[in-house]
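Here we describe the complex-level prediction in full. Unlike the single-chain runs in Section 2.1, the two entities below were treated as one system.
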Amino acid sequence: MQFFGGSEISPSPPPPTASGNNAHMLYVFNRNGVCLLYREWNRPLKTLNAQQDHKLMFGLLFSLKSLTAKMDPTSIEKGNLGVPQLPGQGCSFHSFRTNTYKLSFMESPSGIKIILVTHPRTGDLRDSLKYIYNLYVEYVVKNPLYSPGTPIKSELFNSTLDQYVRGLG
Amino acid sequence: MAPVAPRSGDAIFANVERVNAELFTLTYGAIVRQLLTDLEEVDEVNKQLDQMGYNIGVRLIDEFLAKSNVSRCVDFKETAEVIAKVGFKMFLGVTATVSNWDADGTTCSLILEDNPLVDFVELPDTCQGLYYCNILSGVVRGALEMVSMKTEVTWIRDMLRGDDVFELQLKLLKQVPEEYPYKDDE
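The structure predicted for the assembly as a whole is:
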């Protein structure tokens, strides 16, 4: 009998939908609100310091999740606004778009949140976020030198991520 | 885009690259052997194995979620089924059955008829208190904690101790919702 996973990343990345550098920045948070990773590719304007920026972003996700669950017209079970939910409970949002950017969001049941900010005309990035989650598993979680819950300092992960994100539409 | 259905344990098992089970079994045996030498007390070994399992589970959950497309773990009953049918299959190549639910739906048993960890193992008289597979209970506890479920995992039956199957009891202590981690005045 044979078992045990290998290290190949499956499924393979979704094909790029366009060429060019459309990604602005990426955040990864864990379930305790720790910003595990912040990558920036194209952000001309910064108004806050990094720590405030991360806090604001996490707060936005937290409120939006609770808002989307509360507004959901199809489900009976609704918590009160602002009441903490279990990851995966209620309905979650996938993205929102403004005049100047699009923010895509994914949360795993273990509470890992991946946020990617891109050009407003980018298409559906759910598969891409999922792929980034796979990258995180392969290059971060499986690295014995990484202790869970601390910021990610893996060059290999960063360069693989950069390379992948550069090809995103 | 329709939500992707969770993949079955067999499908994932068929897709991942595998290694020979004997290599894994013997490596695990060497770990237990070394712990017995180092710690001398069987209880300490049980504790250490559980702790090692916990550390594995905390990491393993993300790999599991990434590969299985499981998108929510709120219902404990569903979660137990997923562990038994998908989790065990994916990582150990065996499936467990879930039974012995109590009335509140907070306690159940995972029954393993086949356990690859104990191939080639016989428990000597000096190690009667040892839960040889205690690492598994640690893994399950650690993984569940990462999906907001505080559990207590104990061995009820153990084939190495003469029982007919392996029985792992899962008891849900509480579900911890995600907290807003920052204070208002910060």
